[in-house]
Amino acid sequence: MAGRTKDLVSVETESSLSKVAAKEVSKLVTLTSPWVAYILVFGIGCAFHVILDSDDPDVVAWTMFLMSAAVLVLTAVTFGQSHARSVWGKTHTTLTTLLAGLWVCAATVNGPTTVVTGRLILIGGVTVALTWNIRTVIRMKGLDQPGAITDPLALLFGQGAERAGMPAIEAKTTKASAHKVEGAVQLEAGRQTADDLSRKVPYVESGIGLPPGSITTALDPDDASMAKVTISDPRVMKRPIPWPGPSRPGASVAEPFRLALWQDLDELRYTIVGHHLQMMGMTGAGKGFGGAWNYLAEFISRVDGAVFAGDITKGEQTLGPLRPALHRFETTPAGVKKMLSELQAQVKPRTDYLASKGLAKWKPGCGLTYWLIWLEEFPDIFDCLTDKEQEAFLSMLKAIRSAGGTIVMSLQRSDYTQMPTLARGQLAKMCFGVENSADASFGLSERQQDAGCRPELWTNAQPGMAYLDAPSIEEGRFAMPMRTFAWGIDAHGQFDDERANEAMRAYSAQWPAAAKKVDETTAALSRLAEAPTAPQQQPVDRDLLLQAVELVVTSQYASPAMLQRKLRIGYEEAKRVMNAMQQGGIVGSLREDGRCEVNVPPGGLPLALAMVLGDPDTGSIDAGQNDEEDVEDVASEYLHTDDPDPGVQADIDDEIPDLEEGDPPLTFAAPAQRMTAEERGAALMKRLQELWDGGARDFSSGDLKPLWETTDMSRSWVQKTLRKLAEANVLGGYDDEAQRYLMPERPELS
To answer: Membrane spanning segments where (predicted)?
Structure first.
């Protein structure tokens, strides 16, 4: 199919007459059951009085002992097995059993209709039966909820599950805290599974009156008729959560990362080693400042990892503040291509090294530095690769996990035109807010979609909200929302972009990549950021400098304050003028009193002015290189190979002769066929029609390889055009499982 669709879950309504009648009969039976029990107890008392009648005192004594023991046993069993909603309900059930048993004992000895026993069964029995009717009516009307909070989960699931069409389930609280309630749900064995419950969750939430996303379900690994549930309040995630600092500074990258808080306010514990990650979300959803920054901030604080990053789309904007902590950061297509090529070439040597150590995969202390390859705006990076380079990248994606590396690919929409299907199947999923449910299907795992995860509810209005399904994530968490930490929160609790950048730059400076000890290969591949240099001073205006020299030499007094006052300039500019005169030797160093010694006597003013003007006989304050460089021996200085044809000698002023008539001495390969956009489209349609006429009803990208081998079409252009054809219903869509495009009809442009 072109895309996976979700079936809407319909809630069964009890509209037929038989169902309505059955429900009313059930209520009637519930109300009459105490009176049936009342009659049964009276009958047992009558029967025992007749059957166990005896004139022997010993027989009567032993009979009463056995009956009393039986009553105590029944009372204890009732107390232990009672499932009433409150302490009062459990007490009510237990006392009813005890009183009924004691009356039967008394009726056995004295008879059921004596003055005492008769009045007890008449008055007491009717009273007890009525108390049961009162409890039943209150429970039916839902009036006992305030008194039923002994088990919060049972309370919440009571009416909600019934209204959602699942009346047979039983919920029991296993753990309750200030922020969440965890529990186990017993489903109807043989008729319901945890998947059924997960599909009904929105209706259960509606029946209870909870905010959307409050209930999270998970499978019980030990019992298919059970499910685990967690109830929390999604509204607690509305405001940004400040970054709390690194969780384990100085530890190994194999230790869990803390990237966010779950909706129940527990910390996310995420182990990154051994798998790759897709980080997807629309613009402004927080995958950069929230996802990338938190992930990388944890990684750079660990001792045995190195980051190789690339972003050819936004350059320095997202990852620039982290540059000091990155072992390599490329922002040009050529730089990223070279980096990926060099990394891919070292995968096999790394696996060979691990094999020599008897290791099937990377582990802390094995001698290799763990690599994190971060590719921001991945589709643009993948598009700039040639077909051969794309194949090499996909090969590295499959092999580098065991070689000690993780690749993170960040993008906005992971459809088949942006992300190779082969790659998408290798990735864990972290999905931030998206525009719609169609986009969400590319960012969520299969089981997240089945569990009803809806990142389209956030869009970019709640930046930092995300779902995560990856190895090391607990079973009950993959469908629970979380919020990543925010950097640069102001006094009002709001995100501030400038504060965030300042905070990240300061944090990255604490963990410089140059200070880490890495293996030789990592060191060779690294391109460490240069130490920041002092900003170049603004040049001093020459006329201003001449005035300052004349003033200082004439008055024999020099200080920045005096220059500021006399020349009417700013203090910082006065200091720059003073520094220029110090460099030229006109004044000495600044003393403690804020003055400088004047080195030129009053009669030396012409010489001092000549120095400022750059007199060749006296030198210059800002003496520099000549305007023309000496280029006579450039070849001997920079050329390190032998001259291939020493007989050819020429000078820059020599005349260039014309070539002789005839064929040119050099020939070149014919250029690739150049085509207009219309010609490309026509060639693509012709190829698709050829495939159809040949009997093909689906095809893969490889079937179109002749197009980009013989023309100037690129693979990425073909994929994007195929997507447009699918949207226009010229093609039947794309089958994700088979990884093939569908052609139910012959492709034709209307």
So the answer is: 35-53, 59-79
